[in-house]
Amino acid sequence: MLIPSIDLMGGRIVQLVQGEKLRLAFDxxxxxxxxxxxxPLVQLIDLDAAMRQGENSVLVAKIARRLTCQAGGGIHSIxxxxxxxxxGAKRVIIGSxxxxxxxxxxxxxxxxxxxxxxAERVVAGIDTKNGRIAVKGWKAQVELTPDDAIxxxxxxxxxxxxxxxxxxxxxxxxxxxxxxxxRALTKRQLIVAGGIRSRQEVDALDALGADAxxxxxxxxxMLAV
Length: 225
Description:
CATH architecture: Alpha-Beta Barrel
Largest sheet: 8 strands, parallel, barrel
Strand content: 25-35%
Order of helices and strands: EEEHEHHEHEHEEEHEHEHEH
């Protein structure tokens, strides 16, 4: 399944390269909402909230009311998760809050969140740079790998979202061997992101049992939707 992404920063839809360099920005929300309305799931990320430099809550709510979304970015508490779900999101993506600065998986928080909102509404965000899990808007890393984290979080989430930050926004392809390795780690829905560039690649990932988040290739029209 192809999952289009909507990343928000500074009140606009944006696309970044490797989470840092601004490549594209759009203000025409109606165009993209209409374009993505045919998809069974859209990914909606508040990058400002993720990077702790503001937030786009009004836009998140506006979009989540009109599209079937899993939403994330700066969700560090059960209260905030409930707010995003109440605003219309079907699921919340939780990343940094699942990991301690000491390099441990915060299973206590994961369990509390799953109990509070339902594990079926939780997507665990596993973002990596150079093989290690990245947190705080990808500005920091912890001494954990996806292989360490995913089995511990399995009981508390409906899906895992793995973002290969090294390839994010590059349109250089997602490593198929990584998707295959991740697929073997979990029985939950597996969603991958980072560098995906073609319909053929989306189909190949689907054959491996992974759904694909696509951003840059959609916004540059390399991949038609």
